[in-house]
Design the sequence.
């Protein structure tokens, strides 16, 4: 320590001496600081310097194709030129640069907004697309003026495309730019992944994933279609300008998915619906392959890939037609009379009826103070089981419902899949309602609502009341019956294909479970349903088929009309009844089961059955209806 | 080469350097060479600057050479004039100076100059002259007069605003006052106050650095510099960026450094102001701890030699002038390295003889010239 005892000493030499000590002290402080940085913390700063200079530039993986059961590609990629701007190299005003560029290539206000948002999000580091899908003329013009725009370049990028536009939009879905929520979801996916799964998502991939499936199969098969993004390790300047590539790891393309869907059948049905709204599901009963999965009206998934513009979005969202609503998956409808064959089978299985046991139908059924009407005035006379299905006699089923009771019906219908999640490979499936006393107790709050009233049982018999199911469930239940009680999980994808080796791996599920039906009972129902198309409610629609078809019409009330006569033409369109239809063919050994609804169309026989007929003609005989434009393969 | 021509060159060389202090000359040569080699690396992408750097070094040497031949007596006589001209220029700057980057620091007199730079030399000259005049009859009032001489230009420079230069000018004057014999009982309280202030800032850093806390006497950007020093990570891409990146550069250099031209932080433009104020980060990254020890050794030798020259100087004027000029060199080096290594807040102080920049090199050449002159004329004055 320096002694300051002699404080009034002003000798210059003394002060120089103290200054030297002070300087020495300060220099030792610097040496200590530098030793701390360069010796003690060297490893930390070395890593920081390395991560400073090395950027991982993602090389997105090619997304897998979506291919129908006959090899038609309905979801694919194409390469297009984009105008990319390296934010680090932009000198001066970004708006000025965009203004100058827009003299050469078309830049919409939306392009400008999106680009500036990307810039802000990234704090002006990195390369971002300003314009996608440049035309040849634009490319040529830019290349001629390139010297004026340092940091702006043209790059080939891969884009998703759905060549058939609206066709199958609800089953395909679409991809879109990764959102914050997608990122969070992927993060949880990473955390939940098994350590030894080679295809599992890894944190390091996240920045390489720019697009992600948002709905439909694009969403539910995201992990298959996505592939593994690759990386270039690039040395960059502080401004983000690449200097040289240090290493690179190639991307692994996603796998193709092979659908069970017959896209031509899908196309035909979508055409047949015309301007009607509705849902149509066709299933191969033996496998659970979904052959068609129609939701009308639909939308163009291509609009969503690069971010949908607000006008189209508003149009789609606000339309009373609800084109974005996946009807077969989420729409729940009372099954109406299409429920009757299942009721009849339930009666036989539970020994509540025999096929020949008859009732006498006066045209109505009284229960308590309430009269349940049959839609045929004066009634159907003497009605046995077959006649009850063929003529769709309501009274028969009022009585049957009363005799079975709500819980017996519930217990019979549940394994068939009514009011249950089918487990189809799409997200967001609706469950519907299969009522039981238990269900009512759990669903309602007030004690008087929780109680089941016997009167509520009666209309369940004709597929009304609390009953409400998806069209998918209806098709699935029909398939389970004609497949003799063997339950196959319905699925839209049947195989995953390696894009290089073309090796296919089947993804079709094994049978879920078996319901022990008496084979004779099934034959009774099938025979009655075949008769429906020979002499019953939909005989007109199925005149002259070369194959045998079982079917059942249904009409489900949109709202209660009390006892007034229903008049189709005078009822406002959105209040009209829904027309339903279920069918299977060929009856001897069914290869296809159909369930469909035409919303607000009126009677099932008139509107729904003809669609099923034409679909079956095509699927079984290859017959194309004259009024529908020929199927054309997309270029 | 022929022997005779070698001899000829030798004699010219000796003629040129006769009277220059050899030790000081070698140290300065070492620093200038270090500066030049570092500059070659840091300016790799801007080769046009190399001629500028060579010109500046030559100019600096010329100034030093000329000043070394000027007897200290002349400086003593010119001191009041230089100081007065400096003050006049500072007032002129305040009235009709040029504004660049929000500060009024320059004035156009045919060529654009920065008068505050002149004050770095004028201040010790003036104070050394004053104490020399009062030698023997010095009393407490002299310190008050010295304080006024010191305060006027410091105030004028600080309100430009240019706190960095104001502090350096203040330091230059303060060295003279302290070396002239300012009693310890007046110095110690200030040292204690300064230590307490620094401790308070460090301890209560997070509280006083809150957004809405306004500091007295300083600008907001100056507050931010101090606050980012306390916690550079509080704004890693903004105000803390410079400090963080230069610390990364220094730290990643390690013991031996990455090698000349191999600094990634420097060459990939992560180091801000890499030719000028932050050149030490470039040097440190490429030459490592070993290089730093050598560079600090050179600076220490420079200061030791400067103080030794001053200690053996013939009169109070030359003693005070020489020692304060030496201490200015020290202050530049310490503040710059402290700032670049994250010990001190960011102030615009160059690293003597290493940083690129004409004005600073000329000022430094002038200072070195003064030391040379004092050394050269030590006997002449005595006799």
Sequence:
């Amino acid at each position: 320590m320096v002694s300051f005892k002699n404080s009034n000493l002003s000798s210059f030499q003394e002060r120089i001496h103290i200054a030297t000590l002070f300087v020495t002290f300060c220099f030792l402080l610097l040496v200590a600081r530098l030793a701390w940085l360069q010796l003690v913390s060297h490893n930390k700063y070395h890593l920081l310097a390395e991560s400073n200079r090395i950027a991982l530039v993602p090389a997105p993986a090619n997304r897998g194709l979506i291919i129908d059961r006959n090899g038609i590609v309905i979801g694919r990629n194409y390469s297009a030129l984009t105008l990319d701007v390296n934010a680090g190299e932009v000198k001066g005003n970004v708006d000025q640069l965009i203004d100058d560029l827009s003299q050469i290539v078309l830049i919409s206000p939306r392009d400008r907004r999106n680009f500036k948002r990307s810039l802000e999000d990234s704090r002006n580091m990195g390369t971002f697309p300003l314009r996608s899908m440049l035309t040849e003329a634009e490319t040529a013009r830019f290349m001629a003026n390139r010297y004026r725009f340092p940091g702006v370049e043209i790059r080939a990028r891969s884009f998703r495309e759905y060549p058939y536009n609206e066709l199958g939009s609800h089953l395909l879905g679409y991809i879109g730019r990764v959102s914050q929520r997608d990122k969070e979801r992927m993060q949880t996916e990473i955390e939940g992944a098994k350590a030894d799964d080679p295809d599992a998502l890894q944190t390091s991939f996240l920045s390489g994933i720019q697009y992600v499936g948002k709905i439909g199969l694009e969403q539910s098969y995201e992990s298959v279609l996505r592939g593994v993004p690759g990386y270039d390790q690039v040395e960059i300047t502080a401004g983000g300008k690449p200097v040289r590539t240090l290493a690179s790891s190639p991307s692994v393309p996603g796998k193709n998915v092979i659908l069970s869907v017959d896209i031509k059948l899908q196309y035909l049905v979508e055409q047949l619906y015309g301007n009607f709204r509705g849902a149509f599901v066709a299933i191969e009963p033996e496998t659970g392959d979904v052959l068609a999965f129609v939701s009308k009206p639909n939308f163009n998934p291509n609009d969503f890939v690069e971010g949908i513009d607000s006008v189209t979005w508003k149009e789609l969202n606000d339309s009373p037609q609800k084109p974005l609503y996946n009807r077969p998956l989420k729409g729940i409808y009372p099954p109406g009379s299409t429920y009757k064959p299942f009721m009849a089978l339930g009666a036989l299985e539970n020994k509540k009826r025999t096929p020949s046991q008859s009732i006498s139908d006066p045209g109505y059924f009284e229960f308590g103070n309430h009269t349940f009407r049959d839609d045929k005035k004066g009634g159907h006379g003497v009605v046995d089981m077959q006649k009850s299905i063929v003529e769709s006699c309501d009274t028969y089923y009022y009585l049957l419902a009363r005799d079975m009771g709500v819980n017996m019906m519930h217990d019979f219908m549940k394994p068939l899949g009514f009011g249950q999640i089918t487990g189809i490979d799409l997200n967001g499936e609706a469950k519907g309602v299969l009522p039981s006393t238990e269900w009512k107790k759990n669903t309602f709050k007030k004690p008087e609502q929780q109680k089941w009233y016997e009167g509520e049982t009666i209309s369940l018999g004709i597929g009304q009341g609390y009953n409400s199911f998806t069209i998918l469930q209806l098709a699935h239940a029909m398939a389970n019956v004609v497949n003799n009680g063997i339950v196959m999980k319905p699925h839209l994808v049947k195989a995953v294909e390696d894009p290089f080796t073309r090796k296919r791996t089947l993804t079709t599920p094994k049978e879920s479970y078996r319901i022990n039906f008496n084979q004779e009972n099934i034959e009774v129902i099938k025979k009655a349903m075949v008769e429906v198309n020979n002499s019953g409610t939909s005989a007109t629609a199925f005149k002259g088929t070369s194959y045998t078809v079982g079917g059942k019409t249904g009409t489900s009330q949109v709202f209660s009309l009390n006892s007034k006569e229903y008049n189709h033409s005078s009822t406002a369109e959105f209040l009209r009844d829904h027309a339903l239809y279920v069918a299977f063919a060929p009856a001897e050994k069914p290869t296809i089961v159909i369930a469909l609804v035409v919303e607000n169309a009126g009677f099932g026989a008139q509107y729904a059955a003809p669609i099923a007929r034409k679909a079956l003609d095509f699927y079984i005989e290859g017959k194309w209806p004259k009024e529908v434009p020929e199927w054309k393969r997309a270029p | 080469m022929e022997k005779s021509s070698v001899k000829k060159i030798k004699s010219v060389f000796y003629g040129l350097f006769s009277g220059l202090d050899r030790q000081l000359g070698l140290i300065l040569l070492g620093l200038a060479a270090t500066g030049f080699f570092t500059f070659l690396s840091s300016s790799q992408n801007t080769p046009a600057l190399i001629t500028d750097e060579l010109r500046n070094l030559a100019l600096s040497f010329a100034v030093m050479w000329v000043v070394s031949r000027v007897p200290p007596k002349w400086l003593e006589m010119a001191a009041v004039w230089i100081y007065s001209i400096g003050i006049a220029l500072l007032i002129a700057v305040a009235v009709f100076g040029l504004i660049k980057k929000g500060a009024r620091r320059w004035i156009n007199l045919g060529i654009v100059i920065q008068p505050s730079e002149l004050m770095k030399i004028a201040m010790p000259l003036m104070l050394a002259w004053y104490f020399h005049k009062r030698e023997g009859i010095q009393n407490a009032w002299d310190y008050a007069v010295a304080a006024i001489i010191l305060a006027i230009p410091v105030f004028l420079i600080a309100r430009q605003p240019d706190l960095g230069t104001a502090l350096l000018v203040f330091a230059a004057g303060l060295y003279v006052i302290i070396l002239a014999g300012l009693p310890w009982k007046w110095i110690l309280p200030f040292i204690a106050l300064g230590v307490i202030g620094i401790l308070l800032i460090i301890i209560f850093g997070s509280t006083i650095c809150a957004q809405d806390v306004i500091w007295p006497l300083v600008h907001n950007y100056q507050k931010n510099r101090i606050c980012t020093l306390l916690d550079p990570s509080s704004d890693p891409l903004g105000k803390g960026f410079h400090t963080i990146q230069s610390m990364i550069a220094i730290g990643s250099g390690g013991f031996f450094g990455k090698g000349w031209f191999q600094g990634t932080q420097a060459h990939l433009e992560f180091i801000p102001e890499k030719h000028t104020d932050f050149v030490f980060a470039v040097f440190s990254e490429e030459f490592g701890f070993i290089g730093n020890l050598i560079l600090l050794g050179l600076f220490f030798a420079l200061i030791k030699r400067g103080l030794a020259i001053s200690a053996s100087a013939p009169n109070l004027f030359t003693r005070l002038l020489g020692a304060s000029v030496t201490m200015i060199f020290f202050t530049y080096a310490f503040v710059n390295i402290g700032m670049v290594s994250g010990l001190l807040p960011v102030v615009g102080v160059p690293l003597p003889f290493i940083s690129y920049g004409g004005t600073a090199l000329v000022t430094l050449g002038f200072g070195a010239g003064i030391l040379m002159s004092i050394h050269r004329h030590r006997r002449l004055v005595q006799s």
Notes: The mean pLDDT of chain A is 86. The CA atoms of residues 250 and 565 of chain A lie 70 Å apart.
